[in-house]
Structure formats: C-alpha cells, structure tokens
Description:
Layout: H1 9-26, H2 30-45, H3 55-70, H4 93-96, H5 101-113, H6 119-130, H7 138-153, H8 158-168, H9 176-191, H10 201-213
Helix pairs in contact: 1-2, 1-3, 2-3, 5-7, 6-7, 8-9, 8-10, 9-10
Amino acid sequence: MGRPAKRTPAQNNRMWGLVARMAQVTGSTKEEATEALRRHVREVSGQEHSSRLTAYQARQVIERMQRELDGRTPAPTTKPAPHEPWGKRGPGPRGRATITQRQIQVLEQLGIQVGLDTPQKRMTFSQRQCRKPWPQTQGDYDSVYGGLEAMALRMIAPRDAWRRAQDLIGNPGLNSWQQGFLPDLVRQFEGAEDIDAVLTPHKIAKLLEAERHCGVEVAP
C-alpha cells in the first residue's frame, strides 16, 4: 500500500485563506488566527505543521475551520487607526468592538506565562494598561496583549533561545510534536535576516515546555 497523499496546494491555499478570513471576522491578529489553524491541525493529526497533513487530514482541518467561522459574527471592516504595538488605538470600530472569549483565554495564558499567575495580578496589570480591571473592547485587548507580549519577549534572548533549541534536538524526552517544532524553530533562526523577529510568546512557551518535558534545568 502506498503512502497517503499529501495535502494539495489548493488545500494549503484554502487553509491560509480561512486563517485570513478568521482574523477579519474575529478582529484578531494574524498570529491568533494562525494559532486556530494549529489547534485544528493538532486535533486532527497530533502535530502542528499543516505541511505534514495528508489530503484527507487537510480536508478535515478545512471543514473544522469553516464550521468555526460559520458560528461567528463578522467584525467591523473599517480599517483601525494607526497605533503603537501596545499603545492606545485611535477612534474607530475596533476600539469599541467587544473582546472575544478566545482573546480572554489568550490574555490569561500569556499572563500566567510572564508570572502574573493570579487573577489579582492580571487585573492590576490590566488596570495599568487600559484603565480597567479587565479588558472589555478590542482596543483594551490590544493594550493589554501588547504589554504582556513585550514582557514575554524579554524572558529569553533570541540567540539564547536558538542555542537552547539546538541543545534539545535529539533529546529522548521530546514528544513527537516537539521533535518537529524544535528543528523548525532552529531553521527559522538560521534563515532569518533579523533573529529578533523570530520569537513570539507562543514559541517561547513551547520551547520552555519542551525543556520542562525533558527535565532540563535552566539557570535564571
């Protein structure tokens, strides 16, 4: 019996088209919408790389993303006012649109990642960023997320992350997803013109998770 057919270019285009559509509909960032794709890929195939899907798995992922989109209400399409990554947005529909449940979860997870491990700590941080105990609008979300993102990116220097990812490759404690993630992260560093642009809070969290999974102790 031959190997299962890989996902087709048309399926790949369809998946990334759905990512773009999800960002538009939910008012989320491209990274958040991409994380939704990764989530469906994980649930269907047990790993996170859409390039490794079979044609059948890709069809399942597309169907799941389409169902998720069908259950959402389109967000306003007016272009938001220019803003700093964690500054206040100018007037516009996005600043008034209500924060989504998924975005609330993202803020909670990112807050825990940077050490804001209690609701009170996260409320204090939110008050400082958007003058509310917890963000209510998309504009509030941008302010709080940007501050948390900046904190997360200060947790580990890019070159240090590169070295630590290299050190973990081949570790017998890695699970199958981590065995794919770490070489991919190293390749991203190797091919980057600016290694500072490689890391995201999500990648940092996955690198630290891999180290914990392998029992690697890293000096603070």
